[in-house]
């Protein structure tokens, strides 16, 4: 590990120290964890932005993914069924759920 020096506002430092005590860790471990989490979020945001730009350059064409629909297992609510009880309400009275 490397030792670094950073400048923090007094209140931010106090809040970090309180959080470290609550987590039963030290300030350095708290900052390392927070920085790792932040870097993961940045990387995810960058991937999402690249995906958005890619779909803007080449939008999905109608029917492009139809082949996958035959092999994909999607949750019922993605097909418009909110729950088993919603599916039952659409059935006739003779049908049992």
Short summary of the structure?
The protein has 97 residues and is mostly helical. The chain contains four helices and no strands.
Record the SSE blueprint.
Layout: H1 10-22, H2 27-57, H3 66-69, H4 84-90
Helix pairs in contact: 1-2
Describe the protein in words.
The protein is mainly α and 97 residues long. It has one domain. 57% of the residues lie in helices and 0% in strands. It contains 4 helices and no strands. It has helices at residues 10-22, 27-57, 66-69, 84-90. Helix 1 crosses helix 2. The radius of gyration is 25 Å and the shape is elongated. The termini are far apart.
State the helix count.
4
Overall 3D geometry?
Answer: elongated
How many domains, as an integer?
1
Q: Helix share of residues?
A: 55-70%
The helix/strand order is: HHHH
* Average residue pLDDT: 84
Distance between the termini: 61 Å
| Percent range for β-strand residues | under 5%
DSSP strand tally: 0
Major sheet size, sense and barrel closure: none
Q: What Rg is obtained from the alpha carbons, in whole angstroms?
A: 25 Å
Structural classification: mainly alpha
What are the segments in which pLDDT stays under 50 over at least 5 consecutive residues?
none
Structural features:
97 residues, 57% helix, 0% strand, elongated
């Amino acid at each position: 590990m490397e030792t670094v020096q950073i400048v923090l506002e007094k209140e931010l430092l106090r809040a970090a120290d309180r959080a470290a005590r609550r987590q039963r860790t030290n300030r350095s471990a708290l900052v390392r964890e927070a920085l790792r989490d932040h870097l993961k979020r940045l990387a995810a945001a960058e991937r999402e932005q690249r995906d958005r730009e890619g779909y803007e350059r080449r939008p999905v064409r109608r029917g492009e993914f139809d082949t996958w629909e035959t092999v994909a297992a999607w949750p019922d609510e993605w097909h418009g069924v909110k729950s088993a009880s919603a599916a039952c309400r659409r059935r006739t009275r003779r049908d049992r759920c």
